[in-house]
Design goal:
Blueprint lengths: L1 H5 L4 H15 L2 H12 L12 H6 L5 H8 L2 E4 L2 E4 L3 H8 L12 E3 L1 E4 L2 E8 L14 E4 L7 H6 L2 E4 L7 H9 L3 E3 L4 H4 L5 E5 L4 E6 L3
Parallel strand pairs: 5-6, 6-7, 7-8
Antiparallel strand pairs: 1-2, 3-10, 4-8, 5-9, 9-10
Length: 213
């Protein structure tokens, strides 16, 4: 596991190096999003749904179009598809999506910060969910970025799909002393808002206590 590879290293020193790269890499999304809001104040948060071609040409779509994109879209081969099902997308691009099957009652990941917590799942997939996050909920995300800090401070525990003991979520969890399991691969695919789960970061496991209907 990731933890075994670095257990004999000085994590404090490595965290200092990682924090420097976080400022450059993890903050880029925030910088771009806030810059677009300043460029297109009338669109507000919807400005992040513009394509590079639309920005360069100055030909902006109607707000109603951006609202549709906000509900879900697929972008590939320079094509933007709105309101298309998975089979339709597969047919258009002549591809086949790989579906990961998960039939276990327990998720396994890397121990980033030890501890045990129980609570309701709240998936944070982007900055828009930060304001919805309630104190004591379990923050579940693909990966965390600096924007997530307000929600992370309110979380009872943190669970991510990606990362090891030196990822952004792990470093912040240790600073905040919040149980954290990273690198589960499937957390955001399996866990849903309102699921009641136990995060056992002493053993790197997450299990359902009550699944939302």
């Amino acid at each position: 596991m990731d933890e075994d590879k670095v257990k004999d290293l000085d994590l404090k020193e490595l965290e200092k190096v990682r924090s420097l790269t976080d400022k450059l890499c993890n903050s880029s999304d925030t910088v771009i999003r806030k810059s677009l809001i300043k460029m297109y104040p009338k669109l507000e948060e919807l400005s992040s749904l513009l394509t590079t071609q639309e920005i360069f040409s100055g030909k902006l779509p109607l707000k109603s179009e951006l609202l549709k994109r906000d509900m879900g879209y697929f972008f590939g081969n320079n094509k933007l598809l709105i309101s298309k099902s998975r089979p339709e997308i597969e047919k258009i691009f002549e591809i086949k999506f790989k579906i990961n099957k998960f039939d276990s009652a327990v998720l396994q990941g890397n121990i980033a910060q030890k501890g045990i917590a129980r609570g309701l799942v709240r998936r944070v997939m982007g900055h828009k969910q930060i304001g919805e996050f309630k104190k004591g909920e379990i923050l579940v995300s693909s990966m965390t970025i600096p924007d997530f800090l307000p929600a992370m401070k309110r979380a009872a525990a943190i669970v991510t799909n990606e990362g090891g003991v030196l990822c952004h979520a792990a470093i912040l969890a240790r600073e905040l002393q919040i149980p954290c399991v990273t690198g589960t691969r499937f957390a955001t695919h399996i866990l849903r808002d309102g699921d009641y789960i136990e995060v056992d970061a002493n053993n790197g496991t997450i299990k359902f206590l009550s699944k939302k209907a």
